[in-house]
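Researcher: Next entry in the queue.
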Amino acid sequence: MTQHDDKIRLQHMLDNALEAVSLTQSQKRTDLEHERTLELALVRLIEIVGEAAARISPEVQAKYPSIPWKQIIGMRNRLIHGYDQVDLDILWDTIEYDLPPLIEDLEKILETE
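Model: Structure for this entry, 113 residues:
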């Protein structure tokens, strides 16, 4: 994988994380119970963040240990393989608490890559 590919994947992570956060800005956690489209959109966006992370080269992953690569990829795997048992509280908390610092880190990384 080339450095160019890694940069594209990092951008995919950032874009989808930003979109997930944006979708929740005017929402409450309870909205996930009643808005299936919102739930599906958020699950898909987090899956893409994880899939893109999984495609980042080991060298770039090692270069940025502040990114929780294994957890991001693990979340993607959990959503894909446990599609029938998605914990909406974990999904919401991930978007609310974990994505904002990830977005900051990704923006800094993309400025230097």
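Model: The chain has a mean pLDDT of 95.
Researcher: Noted, moving on.
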